[in-house]
Design a protein that fits this description.
Blueprint (H helix, E strand, L loop, with lengths): L3 E7 L7 E7 L1 H88 L1 H113 L12 H54 L6 H63 L41
Antiparallel strand pairs: 1-2
Helix pairs in contact: 1-2, 2-3, 2-4, 3-4
Keywords: Coiled coil
Length: 403
C-alpha cells in the first residue's frame, strides 16, 4: 500500500498551531481524493446554477425595463396630444377674445357716431358675432369629439387584439386536446385489435384441437363399427385395455365439448365488452364534436375538417367492429357445429360401449383370470368366413378430405 503524509494542516481554532497527519493508507487517500473531487464538482454545479440564476434575473430586469419604457413612451405621446389640444383650445379662446375686443371697440365708436345707426350696427354685429362664436364652438366640439373617438377606438382596437390573441391560443389548445384524444382512441383501438387477434388465434388453436379430436372420434367410431364384423380372434376385440382406452377417449370428448361451451361463453363476454367500449368511444367522440362546434367562425374550416376525419375514422371503426363480429359469429357457428358432431359421436361411442359391456356380461366373450380376453369364439355365433372383407391393421388413420 502506498503511504503519504499530509503536512502542516492548520487548525482555525488554535491559530498558529500546526499538525501533521502522517502515513495514511492508500484506501484513505483515494477516499479523500474522491471527496475532494465530489466537492469540486458540487462547487462547479453551484457556480453554474448561480450564473444561470443571475442571467435569468438580468433577462427579467431587461424585459421589465423595456416594458416600462414602452409604457412611458405611450404616456408621453398621450400627454403631448393632450397638451396640443389644450394649446389649440387656448389659442382659439384668445383669438375669440381678441375678436370680441375689436368688436366692442367698433361698437363704442359707432355709438359715438349715432344712436340710430348704432342700434342697427349693433344688431348686425351681434348676429355676426353669434354666428362666428357658434361656428367656433362647433369646430372645437367636433375636434374634441374626434380626438375622444380616436382614443376610444384605439383602446377598443387594443382590447380586441388581445382578445383575438387569447382566443387563438384557446382554440389551438382545444385542437391539440382533440388530436391527443384521437391518438389515444387509435391506440386503444390498436390494443383492441391486438386482443381480438390473440383471441382469434386462441380460438383457431382450440378449433384445430377440436377437429383433431373429432377426427380421432370418427376413427374410433369406424373402429367400433368394424368390431361387429371382425373375427373373434382379432386383437381389437380381445383386448380390454382397448375398451378402457375407448372410455377414456369418450371422457376426453365430453371434456372438449365443455371447453367449446366455455369458449362460446368467453366469446360472447368479449363481444359485449367490445360493444361497450365502442359505445363509450362514440359518446366521447360526440362530446369532442360538440366541443369543436362551439368554436368561432375563424376556425370553422379546421373544426369541420377535424369532424369529418373523426366521423370517417368512427365509420371505419364501426365497419371493422362489424367485420370482427361477423368473424366471431362464424367461428361460434363452427364451434357449435363441432360441438354437435362431438355430441353425436359421444352418443354413438357410448352405445357401442354399452353393447360391448352387454356382450361381456352375457358371457359371449371368454375372460380368463389374467384379465385379458382370449381368442376363443363368440358363444352362440358361428364364425363368419368368406364375407369378402380382409382383416384390418392395428391402427386406422384419419381419412383425408373429411372434417
Amino acid at each position: 500500500a502506498t503511504m503519504f503524509s499530509i503536512a502542516h494542516c492548520s487548525r482555525p481554532a488554535d491559530g498558529l498551531a500546526h499538525y501533521t497527519i502522517a502515513r495514511l493508507p492508500g484506501q484513505e487517500r483515494t477516499a479523500l481524493l474522491q471527496q475532494a473531487a465530489s466537492a469540486a464538482l458540487k462547487g462547479q454545479e453551484l457556480r453554474a446554477e448561480l450564473e444561470e440564476r443571475s442571467q435569468e434575473l438580468e433577462r427579467t430586469m431587461l424585459r421589465d425595463t423595456l416594458t416600462f419604457q414602452m409604457w412611458a413612451a405611450d404616456s408621453a405621446r398621450t400627454k403631448a396630444m393632450i397638451e396640443d389640444v389644450q394649446q389649440r383650445h387656448a389659442s382659439a379662446e384668445e383669438a375669440a377674445a381678441a375678436r370680441e375686443g375689436r368688436l366692442t371697440q367698433q361698437l363704442e365708436l359707432e355709438r359715438t357716431q349715432g344712436e340710430a345707426s348704432a342700434s342697427h350696427a349693433l344688431e348686425a354685429t351681434a348676429a355676426t358675432l353669434a354666428g362666428e362664436l357658434s361656428s367656433a364652438e362647433g369646430q372645437l366640439r367636433m375636434r374634441a369629439a374626434q380626438q375622444a373617438l380616436v382614443v376610444r377606438l384605439g383602446m377598443q382596437h387594443g382590447a380586441m387584439h388581445r382578445c383575438w390573441k387569447t382566443w387563438a391560443v384557446i382554440a389551438s389548445l382545444l385542437l391539440r386536446e382533440a388530436r391527443s384524444a384521437l391518438l389515444q382512441l387509435e391506440l386503444s383501438k390498436q390494443q383492441q385489435r391486438g386482443a381480438h387477434t390473440r383471441l382469434q388465434a386462441v380460438q383457431k388453436v382450440e378449433i384445430a384441437q377440436l377437429r383433431v379430436e373429432n377426427l380421432e372420434a370418427r376413427v374410433l367410431l369406424q373402429k367400433s363399427e368394424i368390431l361387429q364384423e371382425l373375427r373373434p380372434s382379432h386383437e381389437l376385440l380381445s383386448d380390454k385395455q382397448h375398451v378402457v382406452h375407448l372410455r377414456q377417449q369418450l371422457q376426453d370428448a365430453r371434456g372438449s365439448e365443455g371447453v367449446g361451451d366455455t369458449m362460446s361463453v368467453a366469446y360472447h363476454v368479449g363481444l359485449e365488452a367490445m360493444r361497450r367500449e365502442m359505445q363509450a368511444t362514440e359518446s366521447q367522440m360526440s362530446r369532442f364534436a360538440a366541443m369543436l362546434t362551439t368554436q368561432s367562425s375563424r376556425h370553422a374550416e379546421d373544426s369541420a375538417r377535424a369532424l369529418t376525419e373523426i366521423e370517417d375514422r368512427l365509420m371505419y371503426e364501426k365497419g371493422s367492429s362489424d367485420f370482427y363480429a361477423s368473424e366471431q359469429g362464424r367461428s361460434a357457428q363452427a364451434l357449435q357445429r363441432a360441438g354437435a358432431e362431438m355430441r353425436v359421436l359421444t352418443k354413438v361411442i357410448g352405445g357401442l360401449e354399452l353393447e360391448l359391456v352387454s356382450l361381456v356380461r352375457a358371457g359371449a366373450i371368454e375372460t380368463p383370470s389374467d384379465g385379458r380376453t382370449t381368442t376363443g369364439a363368440i358363444r352362440g355365433k358361428p364364425m363368419q368366413v368368406g364375407r369378402g372383407r380382409p382383416p384390418l391393421p392395428k391402427r386406422v388413420g384419419p381419412q383425408r378430405g373429411r372434417t
